[in-house]
Specification:
heterodimer, A: 445 residues, alpha/beta, Aspartate Aminotransferase, domain 2, seven-stranded mixed β-sheet, four-stranded antiparallel β-sheet, 15 helices, 15 strands, B: 150 residues, alpha+beta, Sufe protein. Chain: A, 6 helices, 17% strand, globular, SUF system NifU family Fe-S cluster assembly protein (chain B), NIF_FeS_clus_asmbl_NifU_N (chain B), iron ion binding (chain B)
């Protein structure tokens, strides 16, 4: 890890502009790729981000110099590996305003949310003793989520409700494309045990007023679970300040590799929560009849861990830190504005979610009247522009918007305003290509 | 012609907008069956209803309703135009031929004689992610026809 400072340095830091972003591009070899006549414009970070060389080097460096089993074995290499692993934990925990024992490694955010849901399930089955009772659910209890959730923050709660007999309720999306906060006041109440919601919608780009939802939950002693997949990579986030009880995010959406994510949990909660996955590495004493478990976070990290991925994610976090998350956020807000205003000016294109001018992340999802998202994506791809098409793992949200699927462009710190403009230009060509003119044309679909 | 123009041949664009056989027709004979296919990656779905003649060995009508991209809607429309009048054997052969062409990654020159308008989908075979779109209605029709013949 001796040369990690050099490895992690981005080619530009401070407030971002097009010139600086163009410097940053040299850190991302894959973005120089070109399949057809036009260079790649990557606008699919909402699905997965690209990795700077620093991150790839960190993973390789770990395998070349430090690889060994962590938290077991007494040889020097095992100590080196364990140090790298725990140093990564400190780095990532710091980045999100958590103490190091409040950050549990998982494979991804989906696993992190499932971990919470299954631990609650185990508590509901009586595991964890009296101190775990606060996580127990049963008939009459309510789990509240929202209509804007990614399936990863919906289905685990549906399943938890099915296992425990609790009822699942949701906060609807209002006509303005934002969560209906008045409805939230009615829905969250004395029966609410869990309130799970997203920080930034992966489809709409809208930003939830987290402190407001947390205040509401606290009024009724409900536990809050935040899906922070689209916020942690893009803006300064401090879970301690936000006051949430649990939060989940994924490494691969924030310049890190796949296979690594994290669960944040307030320490006093993690301490009284029964484990989900069990086995090696998470126990203190085991007999043929029973086992005692370690303190968090290791209680929730059964089996061999994703060490190289954790080390690489820490490298990604250092890279982001050096640029400064305020700067990343400010640049993406500008790209988001340009995207939202740009698509709104194209005939037959409907911007989903909040209107331009409302706070949004650096992403837009759109419905192109008369043209299926797959066809939109195909045309954009032929011009070198990579966007996401489909339901983006949010079928109920799309149904609420009266469509099955949409087209999403999502930006990151490596996108320029020229990328946005190329997307907008190409988008303007879509309806004419499919023989549709004015907004009223194209009765199909 | 660019790959994109090969994918979106005029025949396909025309069929995707002026569709044949859209709207399920009520059962004409006792040999009628319906099949539903869904593509979870994009949400495209289709219901295809096939009616055979009284003897159960010739396609009488093929109608459908669905929601999807231009490729999936056009392929349903083309099939609906082609299938009526085919014997069960001809129908099965045509579906197999269509499938083989789509799976060929651009390697098979379509037999326009037997495939007719469906030959226009040859360009789709270069776009692996879109093959399923083109096959959706055909798979549904194949299943419905099998069931209708029982």
């Amino acid at each position: 890890m001796s040369n990690s400072t050099r490895q992690n340095s981005p080619s530009a830091t401070g407030p971002l502009d097009d010139t600086k972003v163009r410097s940053l591009l040299q850190d991302f070899p894959i973005l120089a790729r070109q399949d057809g006549e036009d260079p790649l414009v990557y606008l699919d970070t909402g699905a997965t981000s690209q990795n700077p060389s620093a991150v790839l080097d960190a993973e390789r460096d770990y395998y070349e110099h430090s690889n060994s089993a962590v938290h077991r074995g007494a040889h020097s290499l095992a100590v080196t590996a364990t140090d790298a692993f725990e140093d990564a934990r400190r780095t990532v925990a710091d980045f999100v305003g958590a103490a190091e024992n409040e950050l549990v490694w998982t494979s991804n955010a989906t696993e992190a949310i499932n971990l919470v849901a299954y631990s609650f399930s185990n508590a509901s089955a009586g595991l964890g003793g009296p101190e775990a009772e606060r996580f127990a659910l049963g008939p009459g209890d309510e789990i509240v989520t929202t209509e804007a959730e990614h399936h990863a923050n919906l289905i685990p709660w549906q399943q938890l409700a099915a296992r425990t007999g609790a009822t699942l309720r949701y906060i609807p999306l209002g006509e303005d494309g934002l969560l209906d906060e008045d409805a939230a006041q009615d829905i969250v109440g004395p029966a609410t045990k869990v309130f799970a919601f997203t920080h930034v919608s992966n489809v709409l780009g809208s930003v939830t007023d987290v402190p407001r939802f947390v205040r509401l939950a606290k009024k009724y002693d409900a536990l809050t679970v935040l899906d922070a997949c689209q916020s942690v990579p893009h803006m300064p986030v401090d879970f301690g300040d936000l006051g949430v009880d649990f939060a989940a995010f994924s490494g691969h959406k924030m310049l890190g590799p796949t296979g690594i994510g994290a669960l944040y949990g307030r320490y006093d909660l993690l301490k009284s929560m029964p484990p989900f996955l069990t086995g090696g590495s998470m126990i203190t004493k085991v007999t043929m009849d029973e086992a005692q478990f370690m303190e968090p976070p290791m209680r929730f990290e059964a089996g061999t861990q994703r060490v190289s991925q954790a080390v690489a994610l820490a490298s990604a976090v250092r890279y982001l830190d050096e640029i400064g998350m305020e700067n990343v956020h400010a640049w993406e807000a500008e790209l988001g504005r340009r995207l939202a205003e740009g698509v709104s000016q194209i005939d037959g294109v409907r911007l989903l979610g909040p209107a331009p001018g409302t706070e949004r992340a650096g992403l837009v999802s759109i419905d192109v009247h008369g043209v299926h998202p797959h066809d939109v994506g195909q045309l954009l791809d032929s011009k070198g522009i990579a966007v996401r098409v489909g339901h983006h793992c949010a079928q109920p949200l799309h149904r609420r918007l009266g469509i099955n699927a949409s087209t999403r462009a999502s930006a990151y710190l490596y996108n320029t305003t020229a990328d946005v403009d190329r997307f907008l230009d190409a988008l303007g060509d879509v309806r004419p290509f499919f023989g549709l003119g004015g907004a009223s044309d194209g009765e199909r679909q | 012609m660019s790959d994109l123009d090969q994918l979106y041949q005029q025949v396909i664009l025309d069929h995707s907008r002026r569709r044949t056989g859209e709207g399920l027709e009520s059962a004409g004979s006792r040999h009628t069956a319906e099949n539903h296919q869904y593509n979870p990656t994009c949400g495209d779905e289709i219901n295809v209803r096939v009616s055979l003649d009284e003897a159960g060995d010739r396609v009488e009508s093929l109608t459908w309703e669905g929601d999807g991209c231009s490729i999936s809607m056009a392929s349903a429309s083309v099939l609906s135009e082609m299938a009526p009048g085919m014997s069960m054997g001809e129908f099965a052969t045509t579906v197999d031929q269509f499938r083989e062409m789509l799976r060929s990654r651009g390697q098979i020159e379509p037999d326009e004689e037997s495939l007719g308008d469906a030959a226009a989908f040859a360009g789709v075979s270069k776009f692996v992610a879109r093959v399923k779109c083109a096959m959706l209605a055909w798979v549904a029709a194949e299943e419905a026809a099998k069931e209708a013949a029982l």
